[in-house]
Amino acid sequence: MLKRIGLLFLIVVIAILMATFTAINTGTVDIDLAFARLTKPLPLVLTVTFALGWLFGILCMGFFALKLVNERRLLKRSLRLSESEVTSLRGLPLSDAD
Predict the structure, then answer these.
(1) Which residues pair with 41 in a beta bridge?
(2) CA 51 to chain centre
């Protein structure tokens, strides 16, 4: 519960900082895409850049999370095999070393 409140607070603070920064920096920006030249308002460019960076971060974390889930699945399978091997070895009778 505390983590959710902290995360929500962080998101609100970042949104307020972004909105303040974009409100202070008014004007237009020329964007040259090599095949087109655009003139857009600076707050729009900053907001779009922020949103694209946020989405890129989520995408990267998603790939990292999928990698961790796959590794966890492989480790669980290995643990199950090891536990079954230990269980079968415990069931074997002891042999004399004579």
Answers:
(1) 28
(2) 15
pLDDT beyond 90 at 24: no
- Owner of token pair 């070393």: 97
Are the beta carbons of 37 and 31 closer than 8 angstroms?
yes
Helix (H) or strand (E) holding 28: strand 28-32
Token readout for 48 is 């779009």
Dihedral sign for Cα atoms in the order 7, 8, 11, 13: negative
Q: CB neighbours (10 Å) of residue 34? A: 5
| Contact assessment for residue 46 and residue 54, using Cβ atoms and an 8 Å cutoff | no
**Whole-number Å distance between alpha carbons of 98 and 95:** 9
- Quick one: pLDDT band at residue 21, thresholds 50, 70, 90? confident
pTM of the model as a whole: 0.57
